[in-house]
Amino acid sequence: MKIATYNVNGVNGRLPVLLRWLELAKPDVVCLQELKAPNKKFPEKAIAGAGYKSIWHGQKQWNGVAILSRDLEINEVSRNLPGESDDYQSRYLEVLVEDLLIACLYVPNGNPAPGPKFDYKLRWLDRFSIRANELLELGTPVILAGDFNVIPTELDVYKPESWVKDALFRQEVRTAFKILVDQGWTDAIRKLYPTEKIYTFWDYFRNAYARDAGLRIDHFLLSPQLKDYLISGGVDKEVRGWDKTSDHAPVWIQLANEY
Question: Is residue 147 among the annotated active site residues?
Answer without folding.
Answer: yes
